[in-house]
Structure formats: structure tokens, C-alpha cells
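Collaborator request log, item 7. Partner lab (contact: R.S.) asked for a structural prediction of Alpha/beta hydrolase fold domain-containing protein to inform their binding assays.
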Amino acid sequence: MNLIDRIIFVACLMSLVGCQTITQVNDPSNTYTPETTYQKLVGDYPFIGIASSSVPESVMEIKNITYQRYGKRALQLDLYLPKRPAASSVSGIVLVHGGGWRSGYRTNFTPMAIGLAERGYVAATITYRLSDEVQYPAAIHDVKAAIRWLRKNSKKYGVNPNQIAVAGGSAGGQIASLAGVTKGLEKFDPQMKRSAVSSDVQAIINIDGLSDFTSEAARFYEDDPRKNPSAAGAWFGGRYAEKQDLWREASPIFYVDKDTPPILFLISAQPRFSLGHKEMIEKMRPMGVPYQVSQIPDSPHSFWLFDPWLKPSVVIIHEFLLQQFSWTK
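Returned to partner:
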């Protein structure tokens, strides 16, 4: 039985024994979806279309895998794999959806996961706890748990455990970036001391997400006094003046060191959403940390949800990871 046949067998067995009974259910109050975003953007970008979530013959989809439990709360992921057996293990990538830390669905990243699987990656789209359920830093705990799950199951799914990346869009980009730069810090990884499996990543892809909550420009949007609370304020449980330590602690820019993983900043033409990446690069450069900045021209925020921007985004990520993983065999 080859690898793909084993994966199919395991997925079917799990379904039979009831290990995948909790599925992603849309919450009417959770409005960050490709459909609602399309309605906001189509007037200014009449040529766009929602990227397809149809799974091609070349890709295998395994849905509703529980990767972490908190009591009765099950966090799940969907896995996308290339069907063609690889000559060796392939790179893995965990994808973190956006939505202002309080909304969004893992299915928002399904089209990108499919595109990456078509290029030979094993891609996992994950559900994590949003701010109306648990505040910061719970989402970081969840992302690290998903990374650990993928590494723990790397042999089963043909993933190279030394080639795992984390990526996210918007708030998910900030979450992914923070998860990637905080290796070895138990505050962000409660499982660290009781697990022999690492949650470290070898690359980070921050898609139009903040790198610094504390800058004046970021606070202009994220600490807007007209919003009570703002999206960031709801996540932190208070405004900047009330929770300065948390706003700083959640900013990836303050964790740069010589061991920081390579980072791709994939940004839109709307600079407010990727604030802090230039300053973060200024810290990375003298330490020799690899980085790349790629902008999708004339694009809105959430560009990765739509054609014609999804495919070039996947190509940029693919080429970045090829370059970064060429030496981590």
C-alpha cells in the first residue's frame, strides 16, 4: 500500500469511528467570507471573481481533522495533499485565516491550499479560537499546536519535518508571523515542555498583516476611539493605553534575532495593513535573516481570496519556499 492509499484508508477509518464529527459551521455574526468581501470590492474591481474551492483530480482533500482539544472544544483543520506520490517527503505549510482576530473561516484559505498542493505542498487550513471566545494569546497557542500536529504526523502525510512554514492573511498574517518568531517561549506555546515535537517553523509568510501594533500609524487604525472596542482592542481586552505591554508583546517586530526564520512579506497596494514590515526588515537585515517583499500591484486587502490575484500569490509563495528550503533536507 503506497502513501496515498494509506492516507485514504486512515481518513476513511477515522470517519467510521467518529473522530471527525465536528465540522465547521458558519456563524451568522461571523461575516468575513469571500462572498461578503466580494460585495465590498466588486464596485472598485469589477473584473474580480471569487477563487475556486473546487478540488482538482491532482489534489486530495481530507476535511475536519481534529488537531487540538480544549475539553469539549475541538479545533479542526482541512488538509490538502498532492495525489501523485513524491520521490521524497515534501514541504508542509499551515495557513491561518484573517478576520480582525474575531471572524473568518479556515475555508477562506481553501483555494490557496489547493494551489499549493498542486505545486507539491501539503497544506493545512486551520480553525483557531477567535477573540469572542478567548482573547490573546490563545490564537498563537492554537497555531503552534497545528504546526506541532503537522510535524508529529509528517511521516503519515509525507511531509519533511524540517520544511514546515506558517502563513496567514491579514490578522492571520500577524498571528502566523508572531507564532513563527516566538520559538522557545512558553508563554506562546504551553505544550512546549510536555511535548517532544517542536512547533518551530523554517519559514514565515505574512500576507498583508501587521508587524507592529505599537507604531503611531498602526494605532491610528487599530486603536480607533470611534470603535468600542476596536478589533485589536477586543483581542487584547483593552486599548493601547490600558494594555501597552500586550500590544507590544504581540508585535512580531520585537522578536527579531539571528535565528528568526526567513520571512516573505506578501503585501497589497493598501499600506495600512502591512504596517511595520519595513521597520522589521531594518532589524532583520544586519542579522542576515533572509526576507522578501512582494507586492501584488493595484490590489485591495484580501486579494488572496480572488482571481486574478490568487495564482500569482501562490507562485510567489512557491518560489520563496523553494529558495528557502533548498538547503533544509
